[in-house]
Each structure stands twice: as C-alpha cells, then as structure tokens.
Design brief:
The complex is a heterodimer of chains A (403) and B (131). Chain A has 20 helices and 1 strand. With 403 residues, chain A is mostly helical. Chain B contains 2 helices and 8 strands; from the N terminus they run βαβββββαββ. Classes of the chains: A mainly alpha (403), B alpha+beta (131). Chains A and B meet through helix 1, helix 3, helix 6, strand 1 and helix 15 of A and strand 1, helix 1 and strand 8 of B. Strand 1 of chain A pairs antiparallel with strand 1 of chain B.
Chain lengths: 403, 131
Amino acid sequence: LLDPISLLFALFAGAAAGAAGIFPFAHPNSIVIAFNSFFANPLQAGVFFASLGAVHLVFSCFPAVFFGLPSAAQGVSVLPAHSLALRGRGLEALHAMLYAIFGGLLIALAFAPAFFFFASFSYPFFEQFTLPALLVAVALFFFSEKNLRKIAAGAGVFLLSGIFGFIILSFSFIADPLLPLLTGLFGLPLLLLSFSASPPPVQLPSAQVSVSNSHVATGVLLGAASTFVPAVSPAVVSSAAFLFIGESSPLNFLALSTAVSASKAVFDVESVFSIGKARSGVAAAVSQALGGFSDPWIVLLAVGAAGFTALSVALFFARPIALRFSSLPHKKVSLLVLAAAIIGIFASGGALGLAIAVVACLIGLVPPLAGLRHAYLTGALLLPTLLYYSGASHYLLSFIRGG
Amino acid sequence: VTCVFSTNQLLLFSIVFAVIGTAAFAVMAGRMQPESLSPSEVSMQKVGRLVEVSGKPSGVSLRAGGLSFSLCSVGCVQVRASADVSMALQESGIVDKLKSGDSAAAIGVVKSSSQFPYLQVLEQNSISVLG
C-alpha cells in the first residue's frame, strides 16, 4: 500500500535515474521511456518522473559545458558555455548555470500557487491566441539574427526540418517517432562533430561568479509564459528574449536560458494539473501517471526537493567532476555514446527508426556546418504545431494522401 | 541587478532548501496515506475494461475536498462504482461534480498494480467522471 516511505523511495529513485543526465546524450525522454513501468502506483510514478526531470536538469549541465554535446533541453543556448570552457572558464559557466537553476527553481516554486490559479482561469482565454503567439515567437526568434543571409538560411533549415517533422509525425511509420527524429536532429550531428572537437583545457578555479538576477527572473517569467504555447523550446524562448534584452555577456545568456529550463521544470509539470497540457516529455509522463488527479503540490514538492538536493551534490562535486570531464577520452566516449544511441533507436523503432534518424541527422548537420543556430531545427516540432493550429495540416494531409 | 555570489554560499543555501523541500515532501506524503478497504468489505469483478465495485464502503473517508479511487489491478482499467459507493459520494457533498446521471457513478482512473484487490483512496480536489 502507499505510504510516506514508498513516496520517499519514489522521490529518491527518480533522483537516481535523473542523475543519468551527467552522461552526454542521456535525454530525459529516453530515461522516462526506460523507466516507464517502474512504478505501478500512479502517485509514486508521478513523483518519480517529476524528481527525475529536476535532477536531470541539474546534472545535464556538466556535459553541456564540458562535453561537445549539449543536452536537448539547452540546445544552442549552451554554446556560450562551450566557448567559456574552451577558455578555461568552464567552472564559472557551470556555476552560473547552477545559480540560475537555484534561482529559477526557487522563484518558480514560490509563485507556483499563483501560477496555478492564474493559468487555470486564464488559459481558456489565451488558448485562442495560440497560433498568433506561436507565430510571434517564431518571428522574434528569426529576427534575433543580425543579418539577412542568416535569417534566410535559418528559415530554410526551419522549413526543411519542419516538413520532415510533419511527415514523420503525421504518418505512423513507427510507434515512437520522436526518439529517432529528435536524436537525429539534435544529438547525432553534435556527436559526429565531437569526434573532431578537442577536449576542454584545464579549467580555472571559480569561487565567485557574477550573474544578473534580472536575467534569472526574466528566464523564470518566460518559462512560465512558454507553457501557454506548445512546442516552444527553451532555446527559442531565450533567443527571442535577447531581441529585447539586447547584447549581454555569455554568463548572463547562460543564466537566462538555464533559468527558462529550471522554470519550465516546475511550470511544465504544474501545467498538467492547471491547464491539462503536457509541455515536455517528463510532464507527459507525469500526466500519464496522474491522469485523474488535480492536486499538483506533492509533485511540485518532489521537483523542489529533488532539484535542490541535486544542486547541493552538483555544487559540492563540481570541480572534481569538471576535472574528470577534462581528462575523458572524448573520442572513445563519443564512439560509445554513438553506439548506444544507434542501438537504442534500433531497439525502439527498428530499421525504419534508424532510417528516420539518418535523414534527421543529415538535416541536423546543416546548422553547425553552416554556422547557424541549432534551434532552427525546432521547426521539426514548431511547423507541425503551426500547421495544426492553423488548420492547414488537415488539407496538407489530404493532399499528400491524394484525397 | 548583478549578483556576485560565492559558490560556498550557494552550496549552503542549496542544502538548506534541499532539507526543507525533502521535509515538506515527507510531511505531505504522510498526509496522503490512503485508507483502504479490506478485500472482505468489497468485491470487484472485471467487466471488460471496467471493474465493478460493490459492497458497503465502510471505513472509507470521503473527504469533501474530493478523492480518486485507484483500484489496483493488472492493466490500466477504469472503475465504476456501485450504488453504495455512489451514495457515499453523494453524502460526501461532492455529488455536484459527478455527471453520470445514474446510480453507477464512475469515479476515477485506475493504474496497474500488483496489489489487487485493495481499493485505495487518494485525496485530491476533483474526480474524473468516466462513463
């Protein structure tokens, strides 16, 4: 039977599973799929997934800074972290990200009750503006580029990935098309390119970091707002935000984008209960587990408890872990991770899944090779969403099917 | 507003909030202990994907704040309660949230478990009306 100990067990089990985020390429959705049937009790399962998501967010900062493979949640936003790491300031970048998670979680949890009531009442009103809101977010993202050539090239990548995403998601080629699609677009290209990347140099110690609190607060606000709009990733939100904020230091960019992710870890889960929408893989797992529930508080406490515990561990071991990353045989690790990814995709989707991943990978290689932001690849999710909300997907599908 | 922070301070605050968060979680988990019916008090019968619950739900505290019945069985099924359970739901003052319109009120979503045939009652604010 359900008791406090079994819920605490679920909390710590979720934290242990989420710690896998320290491994490059360990996407939270993949971990969620791996542990999908771990708990039979719905409340235990909900707590497990919420805890997993929060801890994964914290530990994924390590590979995001020190390994050539940013996590999908941070996408292109962490590239400033890579540049800092290459200058020996990786620890400073890591501390700034952990500070942003600390602030992001704290502010988001403090405002969670207010957000719950606000979202519950206002979402039916805002829902009718989903399409224009999405269009504005995408437009802002494009215009955050400085020159027209990049806007045009970015639009090309956005459309290409969008059309591919629309086809893959609209036709039931395989049961779970998201895994090969997202792995192929975001993971495999960076993994392949990491073979030629050099390991980060010895990192300088960092005992003090200076981060703008207003960037952290803005990140939390944007994370909350993004739950009203589907398919918008933290990278898109952060890039669009800098149109208004203007130029900033790499540390402040990191602070804002990481605070968006931290805030989304809270508000995405809360949205399952307040507006009945799951905006992330972890939130979808919580939703699946706790379908009939309407009380988010124990799940949000799980996010807070697990997130702050993970932060404590990450801060305590930041330096030795950073040093270990510096001494990793990166090419061997990349090879190992690549093999694991291929096996995982094949196990999940068979030969067709691999074929989807290969095509997605070819599209995903365009942005890094052309010097564009990876976030244009979110067209794979954004374009199908735009088509769905505009009603065009129905006509397009009829046209493709020849009806 | 730029904050210059020491990593030791951040570590200290993280530990404090981790302790507070875990303690608060444990307290709330304690309050969410389910009450259960013994197998002798209720009987259940699988009818397709539905489970018919019959018997007097004595010992079940139906809180006005709402509840969800989580019937544990293998596979994900829905629960349909008998008239006895419906009556108890009406007495609990949450009948206005039920819309099934007949004596058999559908009262929750059930997840799989190996703990069949216990009926767990989890506190929450609303009921998913099925059927």
